[in-house]
Fold this sequence. Notes:
Structural class: mainly alpha
Order of helices and strands: HHHEEHHHHHH
Strand content: under 5%
Low-confidence stretches: none
Radius of gyration: 24 Å
Helix content: over 70%
Number of domains: 1
Amino acid sequence: MTTLDVAWLLGWLGRFVWALARVGGLCLVVPIFGAAVIPMRFRAALVMVLTAVMTPLAPATVNGLGLPGMLDAVTQIAAGAAVGFVLKLVFEAVAFGGGLVGQSMGLGFAEVVDPQEGQNANVLGQFYLILVTLVFLALDGHLQLIALLADSFRRLPAGAPGIDANGLHAVLVFAGQLFAGAVRVALPAMTALLVVNIGFAAISRAAPSMNLFAVGFPISVTLGFVALWFSLRALPGAFAALQNDAWTLMRQLFGG
């Protein structure tokens, strides 16, 4: 009886470690769950709670705690991190697009400390990032992510090769779309500001003695905020388009 209990405990512990590897790899990289601004204790508690919930979904054929099990755990960490990296690219694309708008307005020098990355970032980029984070939470994106993680235990079971070369190539191709997504986010405001700058160029040709830096900078910033206000209507649609592409790729990486 005691031997049976020990065998059951070792089997359950192996499944827990296997689930912990996938959940931990995802939460290490994915936005919101892996944000550095969230206390480490809370993130660790979140990972443990999600792992405890996901452990019954882990297959019973998981390798034990030996070398094969550890190698399988490393594979699961890589799979979870790759999926989290895909979603992180969407948020970074929006933040980069906000930075492009700030550069067009002449606010490239306005920087704040990014609490997630621990470095300076454009203030408008951070503003866009906060907005899409709130949109993501309002649309229950975090619940969709947990549902995708739970479904991955069925689609990508133990013994599966994990993220293969084709999957890594798809992630790299999606990363190349970061600039396209940033342009999609920033295009409305940048187009309006381009028209303003063309008008300043025509004024400088007509009146070369005018100090455009003293006159044009306040006008550029003011009109930039007006363009930013109207362009925010297109932000949820651009973010949703990027997010849909990300969800499709994430399901493919998890065996969907």
